[in-house]
Amino acid sequence: MRFTRKSSLTVLFVIAGVLLSSCLAILLAVPIAYAQETQTVLKPNQLFTYSLAPNQEKLFVLQMKRGDFADIQSLAREGLNLSLEIYDSTRKDLLEKSEVGDDFIWFVAQRDGEFILVCKLGESAEISGSEKISIQYNNKLKLTPGTKLKAIRKVNGYDIKIMATPESSEDGGPILLFEKNGQLQKAIKRDTNYGFIFADDINFRSAKEIQLIKTTPDKTGNGVSDIMIDYFSGGAHCCFSTYFFDLGDTVNLGDILGGGDSQLTVIRKNPKGGLIFRVSDYAFGYWLTSFAQSPAPTVILEFRNGKLRPNFELMKKAAPTFVVLKKEAQVQIQQLRLEPYSGEKSENCRRPMFIDMNGTTQYSFEPCLYKDDASAPVFWGRMLDLIYTGNEELAWQFLDLVWPRQKQGKELFIRDFKDHLLQSWYWPMILEDRKK
After folding, report:
1. Calpha distance 219→94 (Å, rounded)
2. Total domains in the fold of the chain
3. 3-state SS of 46-60?
4. pLDDT for 199-241, tens place per residue?
């Protein structure tokens, strides 16, 4: 086939036309799709009802000016675990996020412009299809009548206030307010009966810790003055959280360490800047034993790139002697049951827990390894201590010394132990750092 100059030009124009049409289609499709997702502008005091299915999300636009406040309330049936998140107009930076289980979110705009509210459902076996959800936004901060100032701190031109609402109020809960020159900069509310505590409160920390906190304006080491605030959700021993807020030109949440059974402890200043912290890792809480006997190895933390991370080098200790380990193993092996270990979810041991109001003894069923509720620490506590202090090989040798030869299920125990260790918040980060 012979191509003439005219036919060749015709072919080129056709190809160019197709390519141009494709490019235009792609360019136009992106903003159109984005506009469809964010076309709903949520206005103050406007009730909006919509449907939401698993793996879907609903996007709203909030048009706000600097200093404007938004109290966004949602109404959904029990068990949906609705998540509320607020981003900047490009949905790049997460500015605020609701706590797990909360049906509301508070937000204060720190600039003029549009913000994106993202609503989505949490993972739940109860969800089978679309769910009806209502949402409403109030732009006025209305404190519950009877709300009182509990404590205040002044840092870098900011007034940080902890407010306490009446316990009898249906809309109660602790409140944290950040103000500058009389203008609200940030507001946080939690839906519990307990609340926020300034980390330098003498009633909750040692004198040494308080001195370190007060003499370290920049506790995270990033060059910005900040404030450290503790939070307790209530319960027998859970849950503790610690918030770090940077107080520069704006209020920014630096990091949160929390949700666990151990309060963050300040131990000393970091030569690189900021503070060094200590926390107990309760990843093995209630595993094969009661909480009181559950081991909790120590983790040393420091700020790196704005986040609290374990410093494994600071956690290392000299290895104990073989004589010491053998003596400890001899004590432990005498208390172990000889029945096979059949897995952490089996029910082969009944233990009394408490006597109820009717005088009936209530029991727990655990795959326990011990003959009785001995006061001696469980042997995997010693294993964890060795692992977290840089002596992992000794931990497995200690297990060999403790485990009776006639007791079956050792390999299954090792598998369960390793699986549980990886559920720790800290140990996977330590492994990650060790690979570098």
Report:
1. 23
2. 3
3. CCEEEEECCCCEEEE
4. 999 888 899 999 999 999 999 999 999 999 998 876 665 678 8
pLDDT digits (tens, 9 = 90+) for 420-433: 999 999 999 999 98
Cis peptide, bond prior to residue 23, ω within 30 of zero? no
Is 300 inside a domain boundary?
A: no
Question: Which residues, 6 or more positions from 371, have their beta carbon under 8 angstroms from its beta carbon?
Answer: 335, 336, 337
List, for residues 145-190, the tens digit of each pLDDT value: 889 999 999 999 999 999 988 876 666 688 999 999 999 999 998 8
Q: Are 346 and 367 in contact (CB under 8 A)?
A: yes
**Whether residues 205 and 271 fall in one domain:** yes
Across-strand partners of 47? none
Among candidate residues 387, 368, 376, the one with its CA nearest the CA of residue 328:
376
- What token pair was written down for 329? 């193993």
Q: How far is 325 from 332, CA to CA, in rounded Å?
A: 11
CA distance 431 to 216: 30
| pTM (two decimals) | 0.79
Q: Which of residues 280, 310, 342 is at a domain's end?
A: 280
Query: What number of other Cβ atoms are within 10 A of residue 411's Cβ?
Result: 9
Find the domain containing 120 and state its range.
41-138
Residue 127 amino acid letter: I
Cα 229 to Cα 213: distance, rounded to the nearest angstrom:
11
- How many helices (H) does the chain have, and how many strands (E)? 8, 23
Helix axis angle for 379-388 and 392-402, nearest 10°, is 170
Residues 6+ apart with CB under 8 A from 104: 71, 72, 73, 74, 84, 98, 189, 191
CA distances from 326 to 318, 330, 341 (A): 17, 6, 23
Task: Answer with the one of 280, 301, 335 that is the final residue of a domain.
Answer: 280
Residue with tokens 């390999």: 411
Instruction: Please check whether residues 257 and 275 belong to one and the same domain.
Output: yes
